[in-house]
From TrEMBL:
NCBIfam families per UniProt: exoDNase_III, xth
Residue span(s) of domain Endonuclease/exonuclease/phosphatase: 4-248
InterPro entries attached to this UniProt entry: AP_endonuc_1 (IPR004808), AP_endonuclease_F1_CS (IPR020848), Endo/exonu/phosph_ase_sf (IPR036691), Endo/exonuclease/phosphatase (IPR005135), ExoIII-like (IPR037493)
Gene3D superfamilies from the UniProt entry: Endonuclease/exonuclease/phosphatase (3.60.10.10)
Name of the protein described by the UniProt record: Exonuclease III (XthA) (PDB:1AKO)
Residue ranges crossing the lipid bilayer per the database entry: none
PROSITE patterns: AP_NUCLEASE_F1_3 (PS00728), AP_NUCLEASE_F1_4 (PS51435)
Similarity section: Belongs to the DNA repair enzymes AP/ExoA family.
Alphabetic keyword roster: Exonuclease, Hydrolase, Magnesium, Metal-binding, Nuclease
A Pfam family hit: Exo_endo_phos
Cofactor: Mn(2+); Mg(2+)
Molecular-function GO terms, alphabetical: exonuclease activity
Record carries keyword Magnesium: yes
Amino acid sequence: MKLVSWNINSIRQRHEHVQAFLTKEQPDWLFLQEIKCQNEQFPKETFEEMGYQVIVHGQKAYNGVAILSRHPYQLNHVVLPDLNEEEPQARYLEIESQGVILCNLYLPNGNSGGEEGFQRKLHFINALIKRAETLLINKQDCIFAGDFNICPTDQDFAPKTLSENDALIRTESRNGFYRLLWLGLTDALRALYPTETLYTFWDYTRGAWQRNAGLRIDHALLSPKMAEQLKSFTIEKSERDKEQPSDHVPIIIEF
DNA sequence: ATGCCCCCAAACTGGGGA
């Protein structure tokens, strides 16, 4: 079983990258974040022709998430249950497929919109914690994967890439991430690579890719049984070398 | 030294977001 998560930074700009990637990797599921389009604008047919079912939760211009699935599925949520009334942004998509609850998420960055913008990030994390709690209490196999916009520790960002009050490394953001772990979820990458310095994102500016000035902000958190079955975690860095790449690369999780 | 990229609105450039 193979799951991929990829912040694509506009599906309309990079649908060909995704197509080539799917042909090569043939994942069971692909989580996409930052598709940056409305549902009607998503190139559904392209992927349906490749044998994928396409579930899109988009919005105009920004954000937006989608899941491509090679298996039958049930749609669970397009908004985190705890945010229902107050969430205007397309940042969450949850399905059940092959007996596993699959949660695709795109957390607010939290650096824009001042303190209020940062609070929205914390609200999202709290709603995520609530959702994880519910699923784990009910003993459901689940995977939370996506762009968390959080560097869990100081090892997860290159020196001098972030200021000390950046929303990606603020204590409140990190505590939210740790609370998810304390609930019993496993950080899949750290389960296999406890000490290596590894990144999933490199800024377009300042030659960040060439200098390896990256961040680890794309994560996969696994419920206990999924963690037992974890076989490999691959950061597909080759995608960052392609023409007009996304600033994030895919993370491939195999069970 | 923000050296990039994407989106949109209203234009052939600027602002916002990341």
